[in-house]
Every structure is written in C-alpha cells, then in structure tokens.
Amino acid sequence: MASKFEVPETYGERVVKLNEESPALRHPDSPDWFSREVNEKSKEQLAWAAPYDARFPQVRKQRQCFSYYVDFHRCQELMGEDYKPCKFFQNVYKDFCPGYWTEKWDELREEGRFPAKFDR
C-alpha cells in the first residue's frame, strides 16, 4: 500500500522542471513576466503546502518542523534510503523548517549528539 503512495515533487524539483520548460519565465525582461495566464499556470505548478496535521494546531510550527525532520530520518533508517514515501516527510520539514535549523541538526546527527533516536 505504501508503495502506491503518490509523493509530490519538492519545490526545488518543480522550479528546475519549470525552468527547463521555459527559461524566459524567470527573467523580468520577458514579456511573459506580466502575463496573467503564465502566472496562474506557474502558481498551479509550483504551489504546494503541507497538509493540515491535527497534532499541531498551534500557529508556531517548531514542534511540527522537528517532528517531521525526525520522522524523515527515522523512515530512512528503518525502511532504507530508496524508500519513496519518506520523501513526503522531507517535503514537509523543508516547507516548515528554516535552513539553519536543519543544517545544525545535520551537524548534530553526524556528531552523534542529536536528541532523538532514529532506530525505533
């Protein structure tokens, strides 16, 4: 069942794909820059938000960020690096977490000082 789970592309993957299709869209001098149709189409292609999670009803998303970061690395540890549904957790934590948090957490994981266990 989990192998049939559709995981959307990350924002970065969608931007690269869109830029390959029409590189002129990213330049402000392009006539398509002010086109409503082009802007609506790119909004549909690029917009993705993490689904609502009832465990985290508060406005601040620190706990949700940390939980999804841990869930992603736990999923990779338990299921393997190439298990595609783990990408969902990565998409969500990259949506919520500031980059400097994840960089620090990556350093802590490498040093073995990260406060969570990934093997359970």
TrEMBL record:
One of its GO terms (cellular component) is mitochondrion. Its main location: mitochondrion. It is found in: Mitochondrion. Keywords: Disulfide bond, Mitochondrion. The keyword Mitochondrion applies. The keyword Transmembrane helix does not apply. PANTHER family: CYTOCHROME C OXIDASE SUBUNIT 6B. This is Cytochrome c oxidase subunit. It comes from Panagrellus redivivus (Microworm). The lineage of its organism: Eukaryota, Metazoa, Ecdysozoa, Nematoda, Chromadorea.
